[in-house]
Structure formats: C-alpha cells, structure tokens
Task: inverse folding
C-alpha cells in the first residue's frame, strides 16, 4: 500500500516537473507573465483615473479598490486554471502522447494528479505576484488598510480557491475531454456564479464561490466596501454565518473528493486517440 | 502470453476488429495489415487501453482492462509521432521510465542505457525539436525498452526511416529477438517485417485473415494472380503464345498496343516473353507489374475469405 502510494506520488511529481519543463516556451511564459501583471496594471489605471476625477464615483472606486483587486485576480486565476487544468487529457490526445503515458502502470493517475499539481503551482505563482502588486497599489491609494494583513488573507483565500477550482477543472477535463474548456467556462458562469447568487437557496452552499465568499468576508470583509447596512442585507440574502473553519474544511474536502473522482474516471475510461476517432 | 477469444470492438457503428480468435505464446510476431485494418485497435485491446465490445482478452493470463500493473511487463512504441519540442530526449525517456514507478536516479540510469542501445547517446541532451525523424523514432524505441519489458510491441517502427535507419532498426530488432523476449511488430510493409523472421498475423478489415510462418505467407502470395503490363511490337502474337504456354486468368488489349494479363504463372509468362524477344519474333518495349506484394496478399486473402478464390499453394510456378 505504502509502496503504491509512493510510486503514485513519484509519478505525479515527475509529471508535474515534466509539464513545467515542457512549458518553458517564450509564448507560455509571456501568457503567464501577462496574467500575473494584468490585475495590478488594470487596478493602477482604474485608481489613477478615479484619483484625477473629481466625481463621487472616483472616491467610491478608491474605497472599492480591494473588491476590484479581488475581482481582477479571480478573473486571471480562473482563466489560468481553464488554460492549464482543463485540457489535461485533451492536450495529450491531440498531441498524440496519450498512448505513451497511458501504457504505463501509473501513467493515467500520474497525468491527472501531475497536471493538477502543475496547474496549482503556476496559478499560485500568478496569484502571488498579482496579490503582492495589487496590495502595494491599494496601499498606495488608501493608507488606511493594513497591507500585511490583507496580503496574508488574500493569499489564504486564493490558495483555497486555486486548489478547489483546479480540482473542478481537472475533473471536467477527464469527463468532457473534447469540450472541457467550454464546459469549464459554462460551469463557472452557469453554476458557480449564477447558483451562488441565488438568494436564500440551499444550492448555493454547494458552490465553491459561496464558501470562498464567506471566508473572504470573515478575513477581509470583501463584499462590504461601504459597511453601513451592507452586512445585514447580505445575510438576509445569503443566510446565516457558519464558522470559517467549516468553509475551509468543506473546500478542502471537496478538493479531495473531486480529485478522487477524477482518478477513478481517468483510470477506467476509454480514450480514443485522434487516429481512432 | 496473449489470448483473444471472439474479440470484437465497435466504435459506435464502425467495426474496429471483428471476432478475433488467437492465442500467442512467447515469440516474435509480425502483425501485418493495410492502413486502417485494425492493427492499432488490436494492440490497444491487448494493452487494456480499449475494452472489447464482445469477447475476452488475456495478457499474461489476466484481463488487461483495469489491470494497469500488467503494463510493467510491456513496452509499447506507438506509431504516433512524439511532439515535445523543448524537452531533451534524455528528459523524456527518463520521465517515461519514472511512470513505471522507478525513482528519478534509477529512471535516468535506465534511460541513458536505453538511449545508448539505440545509438542516441550523442544527441540525448539536445531538445527533441532538433531531432530528425529517425532520431525521434529511436527515442521512441528507447522509451519502450528502458524498463526492460518481457513483451515489446512496435507499431509501424519503420515509418519515416531512411534506408540506413531501416537497416539499423532491423538489426536492433533481430538482436532483441535473440534475447529470448517477445516481440509484436505491426506494419503494412511485408519485407520489413520479414527481416526479423516472425510468425505472421494477417489482419484486414478488422478480421484476422490468416496466420503462419513466412514460408506459408509467401506460398499464399505466390498463388495469387499477378497483373503484368507488356508493351510490344505485336500484342496479338504475344497473347496467342502466352495463352499456349501458361494459364491466363484475364487478358486485355489497350489502345496504345499494350497487353495486360492476369496470371498465377507469372514466372512462366515472363519466360515466354523473354524467349520471344530473344528469338526476334517480337520487340518488347515494356514489362511492368502493377502489383504491390502486400496489397496483392490481402486482396487474395479477402477473396479466399469470401470464397471467391480457392487456396492452391501448389499452383505457384
């Protein structure tokens, strides 16, 4: 048992390292750097525009800088994960390397877990750079915030977000294969955004976003740029508070569940290579 | 080593392989068939990558579907082109060996040994985008043999190789065969497979049409009718002489004074043509055969399979 787990871990780690190494092309590095720098650049531009504007909207935007940063980083995180995690099987089938990997005792599980690890590492790197620069930009425009506290809280929330969404997209990648990216985007818009926004519905508790939102509120108050009256309205819509540890545990449990489900699917599913389809 | 009982595989409404029954002990096998005949599907079934729609598959006595540990004993070199432009040959083969459960150091050592065995040591630290087709083919062989499998399966290993590369590949496979390990060599080119002296499995249209030694396959091939195109100064006289000397299945005169014959006694026909030309009775300007040996073989086998042709090994001349 321990031997099997060690071999599985070795295969997944080898796949992760190989994936990162084969991605060291100028194109991939540029895309990754672009994703990391987009949120702070966009935030700087918006806040610069707000600062030179005398309108009320400008002052409101500076108050909402934290929310803007969270939104922009979430955008690039999800885009990065869609690009990295979703085509886990499809890229191998299209690249015609699937058979080389699948005909190894640990090939299928290694490719699933290894690509999950690689997508998490790359996304965390993107988030880390984006969060660090965004916190600097926010602090520069609004000195009332505590930058270290905000930086730690954001990194914690995005760590959980990266693990959970990478697991969701990895599972979508092994189930839907050919249209995995479309299904992944559809899942985000249709399920995770729409259902999580349904007022008072039990189903929003099954979305990743709901739990992240609750952790974000507990650690950063992220949906309350103008505190007066906001929290009572929010609770009226989204229900009562659960302790933060429950949300964290649920997200980690969901991540593990999704990974186990993905391993089962990839291990026992037929994948026809392009010359057979 | 491998047993297939009534194995059929359907891709929705398309038949991949159809009612295959075969039992293969340890040894060297050539899996011959035209492109699209079902060779790759058969290999995928043997390796548990596809689940048979009907029938049972056994590899080393076990069902390979859901038994990925069996793959530790198998090395596969697919026909697909490997496409990792930024990765070195050594890194790729090392990674492939790691997926067999070896740690990095052991995998790297085995990868180096395998790359040396296929004469790729000098290029192993170069990115694979700089590899020629032959070098990539050798790297593919290296990843298949690096973990020291009991059974090596090669799908179209000669594809894209130049004559020197083909010769080296044949030499390597002959060396592998002498180690007492098993080999399945899938190809659509008869003489390349013949070089490793295997037992043949002939597959076409998803069906296993025949199996046997090289001599038996040759016997089928020589019993098949050959099509000869002859250009001469007097096609009618040539035709009458050929009809007198050998059994002609069909005969056709073309507009440009060519004679096209189909015969199972091509050797006798060629002797007659040579004799007539040497005696000066006719002037021969052209003799050509439109037959490709494997195409003819499978066409013959399909005719035998459909009952359109009887198998007469003694009819060859």
Result:
């Amino acid at each position: 048992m321990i031997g099997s787990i060690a071999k599985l871990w070795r295969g997944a780690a080898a796949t992760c390292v190989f994936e990162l190494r084969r991605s060291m092309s100028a194109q991939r590095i540029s895309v990754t750097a672009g994703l990391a720098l987009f949120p702070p650049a966009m935030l700087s531009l918006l806040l610069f525009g707000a600062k030179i504007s005398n309108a009320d909207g400008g002052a409101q935007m500076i108050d909402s800088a934290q929310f803007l940063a969270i939104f922009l980083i979430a955008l690039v995180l999800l885009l990065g994960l869609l690009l990295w995690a979703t085509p886990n099987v499809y890229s191998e089938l299209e690249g015609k390397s699937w058979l080389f990997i699948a005909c190894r005792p640990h090939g299928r599980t290694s490719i699933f877990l290894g690509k999950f690890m690689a997508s998490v590492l790359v996304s965390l790197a993107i988030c880390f750079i984006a969060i660090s620069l965004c916190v600097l930009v926010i602090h520069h425009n609004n000195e009332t915030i505590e930058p270290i506290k905000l930086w730690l809280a954001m990194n914690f929330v995005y760590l959980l977000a990266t693990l959970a969404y990478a697991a969701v997209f990895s599972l979508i990648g092994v189930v839907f294969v050919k249209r995995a990216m479309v299904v992944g985007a559809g899942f985000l818009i249709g399920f995770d955004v729409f259902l999580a926004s349904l007022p008072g519905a039990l189903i929003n508790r099954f979305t990743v976003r709901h739990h992240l939102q609750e952790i974000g509120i507990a650690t950063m108050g992220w949906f309350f740029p103008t505190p007066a009256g906001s929290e009572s309205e929010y609770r009226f819509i989204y229900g009562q508070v659960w302790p933060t540890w429950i949300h964290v545990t649920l997200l980690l449990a969901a991540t593990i569940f999704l990974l186990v489900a993905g391993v089962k699917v990839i291990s026992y599913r037929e994948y026809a290579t392009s010359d057979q389809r | 080593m491998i047993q297939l009982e009534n194995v059929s595989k359907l891709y929705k409404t398309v038949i991949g392989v159809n009612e295959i029954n075969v039992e293969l002990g340890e040894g060297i096998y050539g899996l011959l068939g035209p492109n699209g005949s079902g060779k790759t599907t058969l290999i995928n079934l043997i390796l548990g990558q596809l689940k048979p729609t009907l029938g049972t598959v056994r590899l080393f006595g076990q069902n390979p579907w859901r038994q990925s540990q069996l793959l530790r004993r198998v090395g596969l070199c697919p026909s697909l082109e490997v496409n990792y432009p930024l990765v070195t040959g050594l890194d790729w083969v090392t990674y492939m060996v790691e997926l067999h459960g070896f740690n990095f150091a052991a995998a790297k050592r085995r990868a180096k040994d395998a790359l040396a065995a296929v004469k790729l040591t000098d290029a192993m630290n170069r990115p694979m985008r700089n590899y020629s087709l032959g070098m990539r083919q050798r790297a593919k062989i290296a990843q298949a043999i690096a973990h020291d499998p009991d059974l090596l399966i090669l799908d179209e290993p000669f594809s894209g190789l130049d004559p020197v590369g083909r010769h080296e590949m044949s030499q390597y496979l002959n060396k592998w065969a002498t180690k007492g390990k098993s080999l399945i060599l899938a190809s659509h080119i008869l003489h390349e497979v013949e070089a490793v002296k295997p037992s043949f499995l002939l597959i076409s249209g998803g069906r296993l049409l025949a199996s046997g030694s090289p001599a038996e396959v040759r016997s089928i091939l020589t019993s098949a009718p050959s099509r000869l195109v002859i250009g001469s100064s007097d096609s009618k006289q040539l035709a009458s002489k050929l009809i007198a000397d050998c059994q002609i299945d069909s005969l056709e005169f073309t507009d440009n004074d060519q004679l096209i014959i189909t015969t199972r006694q091509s050797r006798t026909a060629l002797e007659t043509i040579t004799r007539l030309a040497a005696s000066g009775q006719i002037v021969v300007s052209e003799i050509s055969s439109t037959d490709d040996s494997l195409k003819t073989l499978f066409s013959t086998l399909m005719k035998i399979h459909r009952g359109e042709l009887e198998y007469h090994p003694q009819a060859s001349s």
